[in-house]
Amino acid sequence: MISEIKRYINAEIVLGYLKVPFSAADEVMLQKANESIEAVLNHAQIKTVTEVFDVSLRAQQIDFHTASGTATVRSNDLAIFLEQSNQVVVAAVTLGHAVSRLIKRMLVMSPSDAVYLDAAASAIADATCDYIQDSQTASVMKAGKFSSGRFSPGYGDLELSTQATFLHLIGAEKRIGCHLTSAYLLVPEKSVIFVMGISTVPYTGNTKTCSGNCGSCPMEYCRFRRSSVEKRSI
Amino acid sequence: MKREAFSKWLANDILVFDGAMGTALQQRGLPLGVAPETYNKTNPEILEDIHYHYLEAGANVVTINTFGANPLKFPDYAELIKAAAENGKRARIRWLNNSHSSRPIFVALDLGPLGTLIEPLGKLSFDEAYDLFKAQVIAGEDAGCDMIIIETVTDLYEAKCAILAAVENSRLPVVCTMSFETSGRTFFGTDVVSMITTLEGLGVQALGFNCSFGAEEMWPLVEVALSQTTLPIVVQPNAGLPKIIEGITVYDQPVNTFKAVMVKFIEKGVRGLGGCCGTQSDHIKAIRELVEGVDRSHIKENRRTPSVLKTRVASYAQTIEFDEATVVIGERLNPTGKKKLKEALLAGDMDYVMKEALTQVSEGAKVLDINCGVPGADEPALMKQVVQSIQAVLDVPLQIDAAGAAAIEAGARYYNGKPLINSVNGKRCSLDAVLPIAKRYGACLIGLTLDDEGIPSTAEGCFAVAEKIVNEALKIGIPKENLFIDCLVLTASAQQAEVMVTLETIQLVKERLGVKTVLGVSNVSFGLPKRGQVNLAYLTMALMSGLDAAIINPGHLEMMAAIDAFEVLSNRDKGAVRYIAKHGGQTQEVLTTVVPSGENEVAEQLEKAIKSGLKNHARELAETLLTYRAPMDLVDGLIIPTLNEVGAAYEKGTLFLPQLIQAAESVQEVFEVIKVALASSGEAPINRGKVLLATVKHDIHDIGKNIIKVVLANYGYQIVDLGKDVDPERIVSVCREEGIHLVGLSALMTTTVQSMKETILRLRESLPDVKVAVGGAVLSTATAQMIGTDYYGKDAREMVKIAESHFQNH
After folding, report:
1. What percent of chain B shows pLDDT beyond 90?
2. Which residues, in sequence order, are CB contacts of B278 under 8 Å at separation 6+?
3. Residue A234: its pLDDT value, please?
4. C-beta of residue B745 within 8 angstroms of C-beta of residue B694
5. Buried-most residue among B61, B64, B495, B530 (CB within 10 A)?
6. Considering the entire predicted model, what is its pTM?
């Protein structure tokens, strides 16, 4: 899997997380970015879990069906994003605790290196999500179906607390060691949960990382935010 | 059954545990989202039925349905535990009456993970977790349970916590099994050897593995465990690897496959066998059939020999053995004679402590000595803080070094591993106070050859003290392999003849007591010039006398090299493999940078070095420039203007975050030089004002805050960093105690902006003079105004301007 994930990551992407335009990067920055990718990959224990659930979509609500009952997630933005999906992929990715400790050590010894490592780790977590998304898309297409983009708790009105529901659905705590804090943040820190829809008809909406409903999203500094959108007040 | 009796029974027989509870409940209709433990009260007949079937299949152990029944999840946990125990006992009575069997049946309180992470990964303190486990243990023993099983734990710290709670609050036998990955480590990085090393001395009757995967995948872990401990091993694998079918987890390994691996386990000496997820009555029946077929005399013969008993210490993820090579114990985290370390400990500056720890490890220390004996400090509290800070980032084993028992106990208790305790001596009061601590935590222990008469002047006299310590330790149950003797080197300048006495004592201890030896070598040269070469000579003499571990400065390259060479010459580094790996190849030339002469040229180069992030070069240039300029002239005339230029370039977008931080790191190096210069000239250290930084409650992201800290410190501000996920009350109380009037708050999540608002409100109510600056990815000027802050700092540069303006006006 690591060799596959490496195809999604490079120094430019890491520098992007540091808001350094590639055109402005000097040799030192490029070298540091590349070294940080290697360092994170050497320490990471990348684990993923991906499951597919039958779903029913209602207004502002998605019901996930299992043999022992239904788990409901309430979100208008997610329901819109998933459109006419009849199945949903729930996936969790983690780089493991060793990466978090590496970054903590570096924060003490060399904060500038820690910043690169942190960016590289975020980029690799996202790259792993890209890899899973592409794998799922390929598999779905083979079955003659369509897949949406990714959507994660914290986007739009999908509350962070829904991470508890998703983690429980796929057994992420037992299977890959992902936990939640009391504020529903994932531990290890470099962990991601996302969902993507599967449909028998093509998706029409924006299939970028979120629903693209930037008007209702408070992530002002999101790198995908459309600049024309008014900022939301809290 | 009492613990000793249980251990004796397990030495002569094999315990059959039951199978999965979750699977059994699912099959009987447990709906999604309903906690299994609630069935203890609402559906007791179902639980009794499950237990009965496992007893029929052949189980000795009825594991009651209390896996998640802790006070965090269930306010009525005690009732649930009582109901669960009643269900188990009813099943036992019914089965014994029906079967007329004499098979011993144990009703086992089942303790699973609390479901909340313990510090430093989570918010729950070790003591809070201990209280939660303690509550369950007391409820379980009161409800009539016969034993306690702690299972499916992946965090070694949580396992230690649960075991201590069980051992200290009940008389019941305790078994602990952890869950691993096929990599051989848990999710938290613990390997099998470190698990065994840490847990076997805590008072458990058996250790082992459960869950995660099937028996076949568990086999390699069991093989390692069998070679590492004489404690009975327990295994409870799943019925194969999990699959999700129709949204539920299914385990479908055939019973015959399961049974085939169980045969291997029994042959190799595993003493407890059961099943975890997916296993059913058929799996337990298969185990019982195998156990009945085992020759009982074979069980008695198949006990592991003392050859597995090694001298070792462990962290949560690394075990260091003292049998194969000389171990270097880093001595620099001892504040005696170290002003900066003293100041850092008193100020609670854990960054400084961690940096020193990390540096020693990078220099080759395999264990770190931790001493927090600073006058005026709460040593036990400080020891706990230092131990927990270091183990949050490093997996190096620690040596807990304190004169008082309270500090020793604090270090040993809160340490996530098996520590080395430094020390006990031959005085009665010391033996009475320290030996029980070492026994309680399964620690290794150093004994010093001094008693009420002082340090004996002869080798035989010193040996007698050593022998007394060893005998007292053995009497209390501390195994010999956990003992070290420090024969206490005296200073050659004052007691020259006794220096050789120490070496003779080492030889006697090795020959006659068979325990390990350790020495703080540097004492020998106190008061002499060129201490390094005296220490070096003495070290090699001590190694030749039989020294096993040296407490030295790992930054002393010649001492470290001498140890490497000794390992070769004493035929322990076979083929000089380690020596060549470390010292072989071409000699690296040390590149010396040409330092310019002339004040103006030096100043120009220093400016460039800071902007380029050349830390070492900046340091050298600063040292040179200080021969021309006073420290504060350097700060005000060059450092601050250069930082301002760097900051302006960052604002303009011609310089970026990594470069800003590199420049800041270079300035940090320069400030270290300036601090020394200020101290030696008697001037006050630079302090432009105190700023408190914190990531707010519920938010665990701190990298932005840490960057701000580095940059603000560059400008001479004293930073009090409270870390992440900080309660508003704590921020208020620290501001009050330390007289802080500027607070910087960070939040990365929209959900935690509310915490920011609450913190500001609390400050307004209690300390209206305190000004607040906020920053973080989710914020904007408008948001910052809405939550009532005084300043909005969108980046590090902005925060500097805020601090400058604030301290000019207040």
Report:
1. 69
2. B20, B23, B238, B239, B240, B242, B250, B251, B252, B253
3. 32
4. yes
5. B64
6. 0.89
What CA–CA distance (Å, rounded) separates B38 from A87?
Answer: 32
d(CA B564, CA B721): 40
> For residues B703 and A115, what is the distance between their CA atoms, to the nearest angstrom?
8
Residues of A in contact with B750 (CB under 8 A): 154, 218-219, 234
Residue A209 — pLDDT band, cuts 50, 70, 90? very low
The answer to whether the beta carbons of residues B392 and B120 sit under 8 Å apart is yes
Burial (Cβ within 10 Å: 0-12, 13-18, ≥19) of residue B588: exposed
B150 — phi, psi (to 5°)? Answer: -100, 120
Tokens of B273: 């066998």
10 Å CB burial of residue B378 (0-12, 13-18, 19+) is middle
Contacts of B548 (CB under 8 A, 6+ apart): B311, B322, B326, B327, B484, B516, B517, B518
* Euclidean distance between CA atoms A86 and A188, whole angstroms: 31
Amino acid (1-letter code) at residue B365: A
Point out which residues pair with B483 in neighbouring strands: B445
Q: Are strands A191-199 and A146-147 parallel, antiparallel or unpaired?
A: antiparallel
The answer to whether residues A5 and A124 touch, using CB atoms and an 8 Å cutoff, is yes
CA–CA dist B376, B345 (Å, integer): 11
B495's tokens: 């007691």
Provide the b/e sequence for A143-172 (b: ≥16 CB within 10 Å): eebbbbbbbbbbbbbbbbebbebbbebbbb
Q: Classify residue B586 by burial, with Cβ atoms within 10 Å: 0-12, 13-18, 19+.
A: exposed
Chain A hits for B725, Cβ within 8 Å? 181, 183
Q: What is the pLDDT of residue B731?
A: 95
CA proximity to B15, closest of B201, B162, B208:
B208
- Please give the Cα distance from A58 to B69 (Å, whole number): 35
The one-letter code for the residue type at B330 is G
Encode B710-763 in three state secondary structure: HHHHHCCCEEEECCCCECHHHHHHHHHHHCCCEEEEECCCHHHHHHHHHHHHHH
At residue B364, the 3 state secondary structure works out as coil
- Complex ipTM over 0.90: no
Q: Rounded to 5 degrees, what angle do the CA atoms B275, B277, B280 make?
A: 60
Q: Which helix (H) or strand (E) holds B517?
A: strand B516-520
When CB atoms are compared, the residue of A104, A182, A220 closest to B392 is A104
Closest listed residue to residue A13, CA positions, set A116, A140, A138, A123: A123
Cis status of the peptide bond prior to B31, with omega within 30 of 0: no
* Helix/strand/coil (H/E/C) assignment for every residue in B378-402: CHHHHHHHHHHHHHHHCCCCEEEEC
Distance from CA of B212 to the nearest CA of A (A): 7
User: B575-621, pLDDT tens digit by residue?
Assistant: 899 999 999 875 554 545 555 668 889 999 999 999 988 888 999 99
Q: For residue range A15-48, what is the model confidence (pLDDT) as tens digits?
A: 999 989 888 888 989 999 999 999 999 999 999 9
- Identify whether the C-beta of residue A17 lies closer than 8 Å to the C-beta of residue A29: no
Which of A71, A107, A109 has its CB closest to that of B33?
A: A71
The rounded distance, in Å, linking the Cα atoms of B605 and A150 is 50
Residue B127 φ/ψ, nearest 5 degrees: -65, -40
Structure tokens at B222: 């069991």
Contacts of B127 by beta carbon, 8 Å cutoff, 6+ apart: none
Residue with token string 């009260």: B41
Q: Which residues of A touch B117 (CB under 8 A)?
A: 179, 181, 187
Query: Do the beta carbons of residue B109 and residue B137 sit within 8 Å?
Result: yes
The answer to whether A51 contacts B31, with C-beta atoms less than 8 Å apart, is: no
